[in-house]
Amino acid sequence: MTESKLFQKGLGLKSQVKAPLQKDYRGRIVDLARANGYRLHAGDVTIQLAREFGFCYGVDRAVEYAYEARARFPERNIYITGEIIHNPFVNQRLREMEIRFLSGPYGTHEKFRPVTAGDVVLLPAFGVSTAEMDILKDRGCVLVDTTCGSVLNVWKNVERYARNGVTSIVHGKYWHEETMATVSRAAQFPDGHYLVVRDMEQAKEVCDYIVHGGDPAVFLRAFDSAYSPNFDPDRHLQRLGLANQTTMLSSDSLAIEDELRKAMIRRYGAAELTERFSSFDTICSATQERQDAVIQMTRERVDLMLVLGGYNSSNTTHLAEISSQHCPTYHISDSECLVSPHEIRHKPVHGEQEITTHRWLPEGPLTVGVTAGASTPDVKVDESIERLISFRGLSLSELKAG
Questions:
Q1: Which residue in the list 52, 64, 177, 178 is annotated as catalytic?
Q2: DSSP secondary structure string, 20-68?
Q3: How far apart are CA 399 and CA 359, in angstroms?
Q4: In this structure, what is the dihedral angle of CA atoms 208, 212, 214, 219, given to the nearest 10 degrees?
Q5: What is the average per-residue pLDDT within 126-153?
Q6: Is residue 120 predicted with pLDDT exceeding 60?
Q7: Strand order in the sheet with 400-401
Q8: Rounded Cα distance, 143 and 112, in Å
Q9: How far apart are CA 245 and CA 125, in angstroms?
Q10: Which residues lie closer than 8 Å to 319 by C-beta, 6 or more apart?
Q11: Which of 70, 154, 262, 385 has minimal Cβ neighbours within 10 Å of its Cβ?
Q12: What average pLDDT does range 355-379 have in this prediction?
């Protein structure tokens, strides 16, 4: 077996890749807005940008490491285990740089079969499972780890729970790459178990079982594929530690935590709560800041909201969910979804497929709120704003601060 080389803090080429990164992802309209109170005008259209949106530090770092890897190893095969982030434009740009995807929409059928010793493999911002990491180390390839620090923080909590025989209740989507990587940290310990709850409805099922018991087989069917091997609800719901997929809706995570805490008190009494229930805030700060910024925007006058980001981006979906409670909201993947003043393609909140809505853009004076998920580059925000004002016969030269 050839020993793998692991890069976790970049490859020392930050200055070399700065120019191509800015060329591919910088937004000049966004720069103008940030310098002028996040508010721009053109004719009778006002564009109000959220005060926090777009690339977060972890995503910025992941994309930078990918560019550094190509610059450092220009002649080598470079692979990535899946989408580096959930943004189709960024992932397509990496394909154009001849970075090959091993899974996901651009991937191969036998995930690691093409990888040989000396090849370079990027680990995405979501991280990879312990099993995948073991396979890659055995291959003796060069590993460039872009795992987000917020994700690593969740892993530490889950590992601590598992080491102490505490079951991790993970608020997340069991099929999401980040959650799969997270729960693998619990499964590596003999007494480590996990259960993934998607929403409050599922959390209440867990709470009901904790308080009243039930049929284990029925319970496990309800959580198919979302629990650890040999999970026994009668045994493994006695001591719980709460964790989160970092991009979930913060208010939902807090509500689920409260329900679980109350259930444990009802079942075991307040005196045993400290021994039986642990919780740490593992929603990443960037996710929280973007959610807070949308909440703040909804307190102002906004006629409609455009939310930009990949349709499979969890944090983007939650921004649209927040906004939709206050004004018409359209989650679009890029500017091409703005078909015309009369037609828009978008993913509805809680919907699975893109739909087309007609007569979406009101006539007359209009304030449009704009935000973007943590995996959306500024250039895509620029393109959407330019297309939007063009529907009113306006050009970028008419876009002013104010």
A1: 178
A2: HHHHHH--HHHHHHHTTTTEEEETTEEEEE-SS-S--HHHHHHHHHHHH
A3: 24
A4: 20
A5: 93
A6: yes
A7: 329-332, 304-308, 366-372, 45-49, 39-42, 400-401
A8: 13
A9: 13
A10: 290, 291, 294, 307, 309, 371, 373
A11: 262
A12: 96
Query: In this structure, what token pair is assigned to residue 294?
Result: 């949308």
Sorted by where each starts, the structural domains of the chain and their CATH numbers stand as 25-56+286-401 (3.40.1010.20), 57-148 (3.40.50.11270), 150-283 (3.40.1010.20)
Within 8 A by CB and 6+ apart from 205, the residues are 219, 222
φ/ψ bin of 81: left (φ > 0), alpha (ψ from -120 to 50), beta (otherwise): alpha
Strand partners, 45: 42, 366
User: Residue 275's pLDDT band (boundaries 50, 70, 90)?
Assistant: very high
State how far the Cα of 96 lies from the Cα of 88, in Å rounded to an integer: 12
Segment 72-85, tens digit of pLDDT: 999 999 999 998 98
- Give 300's pLDDT tier (boundaries 50, 70, 90): confident
CA distance 52 to 39: 13
- Report which residue type is found at 150: S
Q: Identify the pLDDT of residue 280.
A: 79
Digit-coded pLDDT (tens) for 121-139:
999 999 999 999 999 999 9
Confidence of residue 250 (pLDDT cuts 50, 70, 90): confident
Residue found under tokens 């876009």: 399
Residue in 21, 8, 24 with CA at minimum distance from that of residue 122: 8
Mind spelling out the 3-state secondary structure of 169-203? EEECCCCCHHHHHHHHHHHCCCCCCEEEECCHHHH
The whole-angstrom separation of Cα 297 and Cα 39 is: 12
